Amino acid sequence: AAGSCRRRRLAPLNEDNGRFLLLAALIAAYLSAGATVFSALESPSEAAAQLRWNRTLHNFSRIFNISLPELRAFLRSYEAAMAAGIRVDALRPRWDFPGAFYFVGTVVSTIGFGMTTPATVAGKVFLIVYGLFGCAGTILFFNLFLERIISLLAFIMKACHERQLRRSGLLPPNFRRGPAMSGVGSLVGWKPSVYHVMLILGIFAITLSCCASAMYTAVEGWNYIDSLYYCFVTFSTIGFGDLVSSQNAAYQNQGLYRFGNFIFILMGVCCIYSLFNVISIVIKQVLNWVLKKFECRCCPKCHKSSAHLRRRNAITPGARLRRHNISVDADGQYDSDTEGRRLSGEMISMRELTASNKVSLAILQKQLSETANGYPRNVCINTRQNGFSAGVGALAIMNNRLAETSDSR
After folding, report:
1. Domains of the chain (ranges, CATH numbers)
2. pTM
3. What is the pLDDT of residue 151?
4. Which residues cross the membrane (predicted)?
């Protein structure tokens, strides 16, 4: 048992790799479950529709005395016309300036409805270059929006938290907050709960979707469920294209409707993007909890023996210094000969014990000071971390601004 635990510790599968593999397995299972459900729901309807279409096709060929190959050739021409944007009913021009602006908006936001696509070689080549920089800039805009919406929510929730403390008598009535919020430094004293932020963003997303659905129901003539479906597909940038707004040739108050459609899509995409990132943090916490449950528990005798050995050689300053990886500048100074000595664990000098106690006291004082000032408890302890240790992009924003995402939780 001890050998198996030792091999497990030496394995290259660390916590990050384990979380990645666990998430990949869960996503594969989630995709399989979704495919099973959708196949069970939609496959009978698809088979029935195909049967009805074949019956209609044969009846039309028999009634009007048209051969099936000729009829199928005509239908292929009709499908090609539909792909080019030609419809029986009058529709708005696809490539006038408003239509082209709608198209590039769906490109850079990665919605990609598919109802308009470039047909020329020059247009397709330009789309590759245009989308490369446009999508990158839009993702940056989404991240900046996420940072500011989290900062705004943190400011509001902090004000509510301070008011609650005043009412309970835990905060002096004449207490005043510092200057206005300008960055991460203003949030170090108190951080909002990731669950509260997720709840607020969820409520805002639902409210926004309901209002947009009411507008689409009234203007486009869709039923409310279809409008909600369109809002989710669009705001989440899935963009199937089976329902697309603002495609008729004319609307009542057309300019106002196009402006409202643009604002709803912009705010909806930004809000759902922020909500997805908060939910991803919650999923990461669940993965961490699952990984902790999978930790090595197969050898209690080995754990007892190792704990007994640690109790026998409880004071090992050299091992303690190596374990905490403490730098002289960050965590205090101690004697150079004590730093260079290597102890066997059997004989301990008073000088080494004093140096170890000084270092431990410096760490304790530093942690107490950081806790009192609201800084993260694990800041600057592990000096081996590089600049990407806290994550990049939206994940780093959430780690810096929300309470439950710290490593100590």
Report:
1. 13-88 (no CATH), 89-168+192-297 (1.10.287.70)
2. 0.68
3. 87
4. 20-41, 100-118, 125-146, 194-216, 228-250, 262-283
